[in-house]
């Protein structure tokens, strides 16, 4: 049988808010329900990725550049965002018309530690292109992602720490990364940056660029721009089977190919000598001790 609250309708309160008949005044009644601790913990553990900005696709404007930040690798997240979800999130961001997404603005893709293959990178590029946003460069801390990007013809920079893009000076004081191996031909417009040694099993065509804090080895024809020892290491070397670069740079030294190319190309090594960058035949070059009478050709 339901309780009878009819007495409240006829009762009157005094000035203190207490009913004249001593009953309960429901005018200022507040019902408090204490949450179940187990239920609260379960809800906190099941936070949706969309509620956490670090677990979703984001566009960010930083120092005049448009950054596209991807969620972290699924295997390292309590709330993983897999490729299908990532692709859907990016589509929603682009179709939502973010106010700072101006057409023709170059995009820097910050992949963080997420593993991307060539097909996925091309899908991201296609979605950006549909929104008239060109993909300029890819930043990744995963070697496989960097290789996939360079192989697909994109400019790439492999970084151990992916924070603000302007933290290069502090990062350069840290130990160099392991060598980056690329089995591809670098086409015109492709730029590769790495905090270690770069080894390319292929050609570096005119218009391509390699910037490495360590050595640079080209197992093919070098006809682009290369910069070894980018953090100031003057002991770094540049080696190629066919040395015909647009420009050579080692630390703070700059040189270009000799005006008179040799009749027959042989593997050569570029290094910094007493009077600047010099080029020696690889067969006669010793990393540990360079004899004073070693025959070399000086770069202009």
TrEMBL record:
- Chain ranges of the Septum formation inhibitor MinC C-terminal domain: 182-277
Per UniProt, the ranges with Low complexity bias are: 1-16
**Residue segments, region Disordered:** 1-28, 34-53
Glycoprotein as UniProt keyword: no
Keyword tags: Cell cycle, Cell division, Septation
For bias kind Polar residues, which ranges apply? 42-53
Q: Which GO terms describe its biological process?
A: cell morphogenesis; division septum assembly; regulation of cell septum assembly
Q: Which Pfam families would you find in this protein's record?
A: MinC_C
**Membrane spanning segments where?**
none
Give the matching NCBIfam families: minC, PRK00513.2-4
Q: What is said about its interaction partners and assembly?
A: Interacts with MinD and FtsZ.
Function, in words: Cell division inhibitor that blocks the formation of polar Z ring septums. Rapidly oscillates between the poles of the cell to destabilize FtsZ filaments that have formed before they mature into polar Z rings. Prevents FtsZ polymerization.
Which family is annotated?
A: Belongs to the MinC family.
Q: What is this protein called?
A: Probable septum site-determining protein MinC
The gene from which this protein is expressed is: minC
């Amino acid at each position: 049988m339901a309780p009878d609250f009819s007495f409240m309708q006829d009762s009157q309160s005094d000035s203190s808010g207490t009913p004249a008949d001593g009953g309960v005044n429901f005018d200022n009644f507040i019902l408090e329900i204490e949450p179940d601790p187990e239920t609260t913990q379960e809800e906190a553990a099941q936070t949706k990725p969309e509620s956490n900005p670090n677990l979703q696709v984001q566009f960010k404007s930083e120092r005049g550049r448009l950054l596209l930040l991807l969620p972290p690798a699924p295997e390292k997240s309590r709330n993983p965002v897999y490729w299908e979800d990532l692709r859907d999130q990016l589509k929603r961001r682009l179709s939502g018309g973010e106010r700072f997404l101006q057409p023709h603005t170059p995009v820097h893709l910050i992949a963080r530690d997420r593993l991307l293959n060539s097909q996925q990178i091309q899908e991201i590029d296609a979605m950006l292109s549909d929104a008239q946003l060109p993909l300029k460069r890819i930043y990744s801390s995963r070697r496989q992602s960097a290789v996939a990007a360079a192989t697909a013809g994109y400019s790439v920079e492999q970084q151990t720490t992916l924070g603000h893009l302007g933290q290069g000076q502090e990062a350069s004081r840290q130990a160099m990364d392991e060598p980056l191996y690329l089995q591809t031909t670098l086409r015109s417009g492709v730029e590769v940056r790495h905090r270690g040694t770069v080894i390319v099993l292929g050609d570096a065509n005119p218009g391509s660029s390699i910037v490495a804090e360590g050595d640079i080895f080209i197992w093919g024809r070098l006809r682009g721009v290369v910069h070894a020892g980018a953090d100031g290491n003057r002991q770094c070397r540049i080696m190629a089977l066919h040395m015909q670069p647009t420009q050579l740079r080692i630390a703070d030294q700059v040189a270009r190919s000799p005006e008179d190319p040799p009749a027959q190309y042989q593997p050569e090594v570029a290094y910094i000598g007493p009077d600047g960058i010099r080029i020696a035949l690889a067969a006669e070059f010793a990393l540990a001790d360079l004899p004073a009478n070693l025959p070399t050709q000086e770069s202009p």
